[in-house]
From TrEMBL:
It comes from Oscillochloris trichoides DG-6. Transmembrane segments: none annotated. CDD domains: OAT_like (cd00610). The keyword Transferase applies. This is Aminotransferase class-III. Keywords: Aminotransferase, Pyridoxal phosphate, Transferase. Belongs to the class-III pyridoxal-phosphate-dependent aminotransferase family. PANTHER family: AMINOTRANSFERASE, AMINOTRANSFERASE CLASS-III. GO terms for molecular function: pyridoxal phosphate binding; transaminase activity. Gene3D superfamilies: Aspartate Aminotransferase, domain 1, Type I PLP-dependent aspartate aminotransferase-like (Major domain). It holds the Pfam family Aminotran_3. Coiled coil: none annotated.
């Protein structure tokens, strides 16, 4: 038995992985090294990292500067609780820095360890806010099909990918879903309106159906990520903001993927000219070098937190909120993004990526290419005229993933859609290589 085989056997004997079943884990990749947009496995094979690991290694792999910052902070003070009455320098500095980058009306931040905790924090904060405002019946949340917001129990209940639900039901009550705006497949029930407005109006219908006095918030990714990389129509979010204002519903922007430069802007809703009431983030804030997430809240929400009576305080907490080392790494990560102009680079190379992929739409089974910044999806269909999906028996998702990997690109394929979100530092030559590999892999399916 080889050393690699022994490691895999040990893995199978002791590790439970995310989304786990051993049938899909008999020959896992053992990753050992990464540099920029390239990762290496234990056998010495190299691959382009087509998804920045899990949408998060924005500045690329192997950044010694981030390791050094973590080391220096750990030597001085690795961690101390930030429960009320204590704080630390990196947490203070990071909150101030994010306030300079994010939406103007958001200036107060609570830190978590990741995206799921951030969703939980948004949900609890919205309920808290409406109780403070004398509207305690506003406890429900509306989100969208194909949306992903995490898999803790409440976050899973907001997530609109149904495969996550069955084995953990019943879901938390008070969560309902509307259809995604999904421009490629959205069927407009009111043709006199634009598709974007019609899709947004599904939110108004849901609010009225549930009762406006019961709805606390609407949770949405600016661009749906795990559900297939789905940018909405350009006029979608403007109408969403109007509806939320009309019915006193908090707009929660899930920026876990779209934050910190991924779409060619610091945050995703900047593309649509609106601001949320709560913005939740994680992933790119540290480029995955250490776990960190958080939420930013509007000035109105922070005022509610600050002015409530002590006995009604915002009684929410995590042990690692404002983790000293994590916040120090985040500051250094943001400094790299700024210094190297990676937000603009994401816009420019994202345009190159999407333009290259759009040339593949001439292929017989490429139904739709979509994206924004360094975030793209290539959807395959059995019939381009009808947009009919391949039958499950065709096993396109697994076959296509294998073809991509054989050609040196490691990424995810979901529902016959190639998901792409390479590191923001990916070079033009690597972008072109990604496009070439995707095209060759699709052609190899026959």
């Amino acid at each position: 038995m080889t050393a690699e085989s022994k490691l895999i056997q040990s893995d199978l004997a002791h590790l439970i992985h995310p989304l786990y079943h051993p049938s899909g884990h008999q020959s896992p990749k053992i990753w050992v090294e990464g540099t920029g947009a390239v990762i290496k496995d234990i056998e010495g094979n190299t691959y382009l990292d087509g998804l920045s690991s899990l949408w998060n290694v924005n500045v690329g792999h192997g950044r010694e500067e981030l390791a050094q910052v973590a080391y220096n902070q750990m030597k001085q003070l690795a961690y101390y609780s930030t429960y009320t009455g204590s704080t630390n320098l990196p947490a203070i500095q990071l909150a101030e820095k994010i306030s300079q980058l994010i939406y103007p009306s958001i200036n107060h931040f609570f830190f978590t360890s990741g995206g799921g905790e951030s969703t939980e924090s948004s949900i609890k904060t919205a309920r808290f806010y409406w109780k403070v405002k004398g509207k305690p019946e506003k406890v429900k949340f509306i989100s969208r099909m194909r949306g992903y917001h995490g898999v803790t129990l409440a976050a899973m209940s907001a997530t609109g990918l149904t495969a996550y639900w069955p084995m953990f039901e019943p879901r938390v009550p008070g969560f309902v879903h509307i259809e995604s705006p999904y421009p490629y497949r959205f069927v407009n029930p009111t043709p006199e309106l634009s598709d974007g407005v019609a899709a947004a109006n599904l939110l108004e219908e849901a609010i009225l159906r549930e009762g406006p006095e019961t709805v606390a918030g609407f949770i949405a990714e600016p661009i749906q990520g795990a559900g297939g990389v789905i940018p909405p129509q350009d006029d979608y979010f403007k109408r969403i903001r109007e509806i939320c204002d009309q019915y006193e519903v908090l707009l929660i922007s899930d920026e876990v993927i779209t934050g910190f430069g991924r779409t060619g802007r610091w945050f995703g809703l900047e593309h649509y000219g609106i601001e949320p009431d709560i913005a939740q983030f994680a992933k790119g804030i540290t480029s995955g070098y250490i776990p960190l997430g958080g939420i930013g809240v509007s000035d109105a929400i922070s005022e509610a937190i600050n002015t409530v009576a002590p006995e009604k305080r915002w009684m929410h907490a995590f042990t690692y909120s404002g983790h000293t080392t994590a916040c120090a790494v985040a500051l250094a990560n943001i400094a790299i993004i700024e210094r190297e102009g990676l937000v603009q680079h994401a816009e420019e190379q994202g345009a190159r990526l999407i333009a290259g992929l759009q040339e593949l739409e001439e292929m017989p089974h490429v139904g739709n290419v979509r994206g924004k910044g360094l975030m793209a999806g290539v959807e395959l269909v059995a019939d381009k005229a009808t947009k009919e999906l391949f039958p499950a028996s065709a096993n396109i998702t697994v076959r296509l993933g294998n073809e991509l990997m054989q050609r040196g690109l490691f990424t995810r394929v979901f529902n016959d859609t190639v998901l792409l979100a390479p590191p923001l530092c990916t070079t033009p030559e690597q972008i072109d290589q990604i496009v070439q590999i995707v095209g060759e892999s699709i052609a190899a399916l026959g």
